UniProtKB/TrEMBL annotation:
PANTHER family: ACETYLTRANSFERASE, AMINOALKYLPHOSPHONATE N-ACETYLTRANSFERASE-RELATED-RELATED. Residues 15-158 form the N-acetyltransferase domain. It comes from the Bacteria. SUPFAM superfamilies: Acyl-CoA N-acyltransferases (Nat). The keyword Acyltransferase applies. The keyword Ribosomal protein does not apply. Keywords: Acyltransferase, Transferase. PROSITE patterns: GNAT. This is N-acetyltransferase domain-containing protein.
Length: 172
């Protein structure tokens, strides 16, 4: 109808990367569960309810980790959680993958841990492995799955920033 009346659709709200708070826990949990369900079909069916995952986000992840969300207005599109130099979580709603939002969340995690980041990824998660390789992460260890609740083989990846070139103005 907009074409017939000459009206244009309003521009979508910009995506903002902002600190996560307790009020975001339910939306973060929904992103977490939906992303895992859609992008990792090899995982066993979800055993935890939305309420249990919300509680885990609110009571464990948010107090322990530097957590940011990608939000478009009131909508939470994704989140990243960093615990020290460990990128503990980075999940997106499946419908916003490959739009640059994951890269923006990762850039914020890297800004928060400028000395480098480590993360764990399932070996079967080829999409995530390609994403992290594209952003300069390299495999530093492999695991047989005995260290995760899914019992799936995993990789440990590490990003270390390139040393910065000396500033020519610092020379005598």
């Amino acid at each position: 109808m907009a074409e017939e009346t000459g009206a244009t659709a309003p521009a979508p709200l910009p995506v903002e990367i902002r600190p996560a708070g307790p009020a975001d826990a339910a939306a973060i949990a929904a992103v977490h569960q939906e992303s895992r369900r859609v992008t990792m079909p090899y995982l066993p069916p979800q055993r935890r309810s939305h309420g249990e995952v919300t509680h885990w986000i609110r009571e464990s992840v948010l107090p322990r980790c530097h957590t940011v969300v990608a939000a478009r207005g009131p909508e939470i599109l994704g989140y990243a959680a960093v615990d020290g130099d460990l990128l503990d979580q980075l999940y997106l709603r499946p419908d916003v993958r490959r739009t640059g939002i994951g890269s923006r969340l990762l850039a914020e995690a890297q800004r928060h841990s400028p000395g480098g980041l480590t993360l764990h990824v399932f070996q079967l998660n080829t999409g995530a492995r390609a994403f992290y390789a594209h952003h300069g992460f390299a495999v530093v260890a492999t695991g047989d799955g005995s260290g995760n609740m899914e019992n799936l083989p995993q990789l440990t990846l590490r990003w270390t920033p390139a040393p910065s070139a000396p500033d020519p103005q610092d020379r005598p």
